[in-house]
Amino acid sequence: MTATLVIVEVTDAGVAKSSLEAITFTRTVTEGLDGVLSAVSIGAVPAAARDALASFGVTSLVELVGDIADTYAPAAWAAAVVTLIHELQPQVVAGAGSQRGSEILAHVAAIMDEPLAAQCVALEAGDGGWDLTRIRWGGVLFEDAYFDAERAIVTVAPHHTAAASAASSGQLQVDTRHVVADPDDLTATVQETRQRDGGVSLATAAVVIAGGRGVGSAEGFAELEELAGLLGGAVGCSRVATNNGWRSHNDQVGQTGTRVAPDLYVACGISGATQHWVGCMSAKQILAINTDNEAPLVAKADYAVIGDLHTVLPAIIEEVKARKVG
Amino acid sequence: MHVLVCIKRVPAPGARIVLTEDQTAIDTRHLGFTVSPHEECAVEEAVQINERLGGSTTVLTLGPPEAQEQLRTAMSMGIQRGVLLQTDNPGWDPRATATAITEAVRQIESQHQPFDLILFGTESADAGNYQVGIRVAQALNRPIVSGVKQLSIEDGEIVMHRAVESGFELCRVATPAVAAVMEGLNLPRYPSMRGRLAAKNATIDIIEPQPRSGGLITRRLHHPPQQQSETVVLGTGSEAATAVVDLFERVGLL
């Protein structure tokens, strides 16, 4: 019997990290319930990804295949998941709080007219409902809430639960089903995809060199570009830089831009308003370069250099080049 | 084209969020309020569509009487009508909010004309529930695209680009449609003085929404546990370069 059902996102690179986090989160919830942890994917799951699911404690996998798997169609994908929920009657339905996970689960909850708790970091069965903790303001605040719902439909906040495999793993049962979508659910389907032109993706870069007000101009980002190039990283920026037209919004790190989690985040001339902090706080280490030693981001950073970024960055670039030659 | 924009009044915090003594809300005594950023772009988009194609623009929010301030901000940017779903109860969960907005849309459409396009923000800055627009679209049985960062109207259809990690996804939908948009869609204008004056005295329609029970009930807000240690200062000015590049090596970047 299925106690909990997790929607997993699988790409050619395997199970998405945010989905592994969601599985880890849901496995903990499942331990207090009667039944097993099941997963559902839209599209076929390759052997390596199946092994990963098994090692994370997933007992059964339902693959929904057919036309709907060809293109992203959130309403149709959600409708197929709802059919499965009616059949399996899980007590918990979870997915990653990723762009797609958030969208699909919102459709699922809307179709079923059941509540949805987004961006959760903790969940357990409570008195007639559920007790949960979720993030607000992109993660600078936690909200403890009573979730007055028979079934807990939740998304799991990315970067909060560390993905960890199960202590013991068994055989993964796979059930492959062909689904035909209702044409009404295909009216907002992706018709075309365009690849980003080259470069390192901001969301997955190992190092991000980000600039804010202190950079002063669009041209001022040249030094950040050069350092990012030398380190194989991406350039990011604060909302101030976007609003001034210095950088494209696609480079914006923050609550209303991209949330990043690199090994090192270098914040150049960024004071660190809440809006920006929530976009970079999941970085393993933060280095702040700022003229103001009392800037909030300097206080929150692991490392700081006090000084004008236009003096500091050229010196860093010289030093990196020297060591690369040496 | 007839466009409705749904916005939310949210506090505008700086670098630190202070909680009320009973920890159930943000202490807003020393904070201003603003239109949630994604929705500010939705307002701008509606005004631009109206400038190009004519029709009508309406802005709607659910909130306390003070939320008129945010409706007037939108109207000072060029939105023609304002509707407030007025409530003093702060405990509206996203499902209840979506139900009330759906009812209001039906009511407005029956009195005036159907909306060709309804705009939401993908998620609000404060609560971040990621669902109100999708719930309203499902209830009205209209297509919705979320995460929209570029929008155009071609041959009466709404063409939308959604930013994803690998690039862009393009969706083309017939009207009536719904879009949940994100910042980056456009650069919202500053309201003109004339716009401000006109908005100041504009009539705002008040609707009393019926709350719906169940769902999320906030018990307490708190700051996440801090694992913060002291900041290590690597140096001042260009002389810090050696220590910084040592750090790059430790992290494995070189």
Summarize the structure.
The complex is a heterodimer of chains A (326) and B (254). By secondary structure, chain A is α/β, with parallel strands linked by helices.
Report on the architecture of this protein:
The complex is a heterodimer of chains A (326) and B (254). Chain A has helices at residues 17-30, 47-55, 74-88, 99-112, 222-231, 239-243, 274-280, 296-300, 309-325, and strands spanning 2-8, 10-11, 14-15, 36-42, 60-65, 92-96, 117-125, 130-136, 141-148, 152-156, 173-178, 190-195, 207-211, 234-237, 264-268, 285-290, 303-306. Chain A has 326 residues and is α/β, with parallel strands linked by helices. In chain A, the strands form three sheets. A nine-stranded mixed β-sheet of chain A has the order 9-8-7-10-6-1-4-5-11, with helices on both faces. Chain A has a five-stranded parallel β-sheet with strand order 14-13-15-16-17. In chain A, strands 2-3 form a two-stranded antiparallel sheet. The longest helix of chain A is centred in the last third of the chain and has 17 residues, at 309-325. By secondary structure, chain B is of the alpha/beta class. Chain B has helices at 37-53, 68-76, 94-111, 132-140, 193-200, 241-251; strands at residues 2-6, 9-11, 33-35, 56-63, 81-86, 117-121, 144-154, 157-164, 167-173, 177-181, 204-207, 215-222, 232-236. In chain B, helix 3 crosses helix 4. The longest helix of chain B is centred in the middle third of the chain and has 18 residues, at 94-111. The radius of gyration of chain B is 21 Å and the shape is globular. The chains are: A alpha/beta (326), B alpha/beta (254). Strand 12 of chain A pairs antiparallel with strand 9 (167-173) of chain B.
